[in-house]
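Lab meeting, item 3. Inverse folding demo.
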């Protein structure tokens, strides 16, 4: 059909009409129930730290140039150390340089190696702090990208030291998600170098094969971008309009004011793993624009290849630019049909468990058993209601197992109370008195048992991933609802239905 067709993707809400009228939504399903894609990303914090030191080296050279300090030598022997050799003259300028470095980079520890030699070191504590901040920034950026994709049930969390686990339920086109999530989307703006033989320059070829010589110092980066929108210029060509934050706007204003009529080059960088599993940086020039006026907080990137390229770039920049290389180390897809089978089997298990429990309680405890069954039904309704209300709660296959476990826990609460009532009846107490003592004395035992289980659930939630976390949510919520319905609701129902001292339990007077 050549190009004479249109492909559209849409989501059909098959929730009941009464649920839609109330403005409510179904319980969010996890990856193993609705199908979708799982990504595990590796965040190269070591390379991020090394790149940070390279930027610091450039800043030291710029400070030295501004203070007319010649003969300074700066090197980076490893990924967390900078060596600085000062000239023998200009003692006062040396002191100014040291003071300026301390002011700008207080996190660096200075170690003197000689009269005119010193090292700037990231201490082990500062290294740990830097890695933690890098992981936090990467997590925040990934969540922003997922929100831009319109996926509300996604699970994004840290896994281990330097990995991020992303679950995208309901996503059945992994390549589209991979294109956005897997991209590092580092955008940097450079000035053309006046002298190609000067130190601290960057060389890169554009799409036409021409060699561009740039100043290594970045004018500003994607981290200063507040908003980005794709659009068209007056000629109908695609472009991306950028809005900068206060820091970026000041940098752009100062730079453009001094460089009207000169070129500014925009470079887009991505990281990926090669055949040897090494992280490789791939950079390309996406714009060579002449600064035609004094720019401020808003300007546009033109000469985009296509409207789709402009939309993708705008989406990535809105979600944020990453400070560390991120690569996909694991990708797994789960089909929706497998998720439907999991739901069917889970509901069957839950139904069988509920039916057997209801029959057991009704046959063994008669009137009190019926009250316990009503409380059990209210417990399940309350639990499902909480699951649908909580924004971060996602139902998984182990979560369904947690529902079955909750049924047993809720009944266990009533069994403890009813057995205590039996003991009081055997001691000769009247029915109403035995009920009062039974509920009162069994409460401490129930509370202790549920607190210990709650502690286990909290630990599972804090360190678990994906389905384990889903099970922990159901477990903790089930404890709360079973405590409420098994003790307070069943007590209220008992008081309403039993108002005299008639025989209460089979075989017990």
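The presenter then showed the designed sequence:
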């Amino acid at each position: 059909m050549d190009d004479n067709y249109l492909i559209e993707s849409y989501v059909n809400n098959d929730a009941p009409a009464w649920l839609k009228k109330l403005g409510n939504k179904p319980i969010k399903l996890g990856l193993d129930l609705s199908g979708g894609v799982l990504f595990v990303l590796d965040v190269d914090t070591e390379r991020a730290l090394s790149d940070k030191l390279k930027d610091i080296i450039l800043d030291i050279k710029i400070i030295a140039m501004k203070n007319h300090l010649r003969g300074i030598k700066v090197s980076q022997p490893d990924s967390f150390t900078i060596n600085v050799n000062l000239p023998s003259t200009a003692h006062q300028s040396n002191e100014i340089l040291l003071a300026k470095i301390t002011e700008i980079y207080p996190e660096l520890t200075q170690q003197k190696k000689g009269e005119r030699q010193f090292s700037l070191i990231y201490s082990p504590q500062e290294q740990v702090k830097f890695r933690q901040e890098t992981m936090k920034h990467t997590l925040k950026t990934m969540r922003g990208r997922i929100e831009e994709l319109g996926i509300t049930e996604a699970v994004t969390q840290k896994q281990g030291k330097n990995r991020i686990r992303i679950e995208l339920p309901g996503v059945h086109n992994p390549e589209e998600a991979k294109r956005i999530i897997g991209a590092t989307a580092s955008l940097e703006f450079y000035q053309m170098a006046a002298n190609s033989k000067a130190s601290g320059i960057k060389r890169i070829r554009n799409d036409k094969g021409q060699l561009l010589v740039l100043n290594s110092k970045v004018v500003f980066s994607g981290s200063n971008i507040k908003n980005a929108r794709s659009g068209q210029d007056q000629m109908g060509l695609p472009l991306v309009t950028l809005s900068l934050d206060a820091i970026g706007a000041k940098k752009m204003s100062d730079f453009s004011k001094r460089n009207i009529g000169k070129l500014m080059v925009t470079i887009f960088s991505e990281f990926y793993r090669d055949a040897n599993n090494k992280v490789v940086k791939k950079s390309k020039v996406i714009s060579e624009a002449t600064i035609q006026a004094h720019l401020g907080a808003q300007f546009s990137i033109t000469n985009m290849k296509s409207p789709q390229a402009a939309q993708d770039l705008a989406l990535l920049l809105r979600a944020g630019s990453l400070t560390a290389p991120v690569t996909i180390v694991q990708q797994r897809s789960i089909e929706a049909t497998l998720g439907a089978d999991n739901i069917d089997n889970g509901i069957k298990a839950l139904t069988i468990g509920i039916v057997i429990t209801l029959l057991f309680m009704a046959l063994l405890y008669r009137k009190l058993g019926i009250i316990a069954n009503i409380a059990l039904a209210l417990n399940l309704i309350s639990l499902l209601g909480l699951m649908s209300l909580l924004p971060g709660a996602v139902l998984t296959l182990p979560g369904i197992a947690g529902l079955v476990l909750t049924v047993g826990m809720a009944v266990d609460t009533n069994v403890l109370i009813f057995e205590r009532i039996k003991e009081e009846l055997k001691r000769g107490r009247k029915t109403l008195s035995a009920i009062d003592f039974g509920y009162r004395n069994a409460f401490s035992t129930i509370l202790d048992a549920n607190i210990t289980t709650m502690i286990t659930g909290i630990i599972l939630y804090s360190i678990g991933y994906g389905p384990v976390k889903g099970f922990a949510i159901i477990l903790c919520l089930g404890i709360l609802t079973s405590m409420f319905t098994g003790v307070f609701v069943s007590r209220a129902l008992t008081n309403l239905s039993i108002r005299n001292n008639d025989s209460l339990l089979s075989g017990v007077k």
